[in-house]
Amino acid sequence: MRAELIDPRDQTTQVDDPTYRVYFWAEGGGAKEEWELFDADLDEVLEWIPAHALGRPHSLWAVTRSTEGVCLIRLRGIDLDVERGTWPVWAHEVIL
User: What is the mean predicted confidence (pLDDT) over 24-39?
Assistant: First the structure.
């Protein structure tokens, strides 16, 4: 992890009502159940996840939309659809 002081004047916009996506992965990866959550604070989303996970691994993403389409920003977990060799080191220890 890296931490740097920043100049907050570089901010050009902000979103006060974020949308989140949660992916629950089937055992062994592959098939998944996908949810989009609206009108919720991050704390509410983090409480919602274990109540619906049923023991399945999950990933959590913030959603941004623009004229170019939908962009997901990873907040927790990983994308199990990508090659295992591209996972971050910490993911191998958690997901194995």
Answer: 83
Phi–psi pair at 10, nearest 5 degrees: -80, -10
- The ranges assigned to domains in the chain are 16-95
Check pLDDT > 80 for residue 78.
Answer: no
Q: For residue 50, give Cα distances in angstroms to 14, 47, 53, 67, 72.
A: 28, 6, 5, 33, 21
- Cα 96 from Cα 87, distance rounded (Å): 11
Nearest 5°: CA angle at 36, between 51 and 85?
85
Task: Give all strands of the β-sheet with 19-25 in edge-to-edge order.
Answer: 32-37, 19-25, 58-66, 69-76
Q: Report pTM.
A: 0.77
Q: Which residue has the tokens 């993911």?
A: 91
3-state class (DSSP) for residue 70: strand
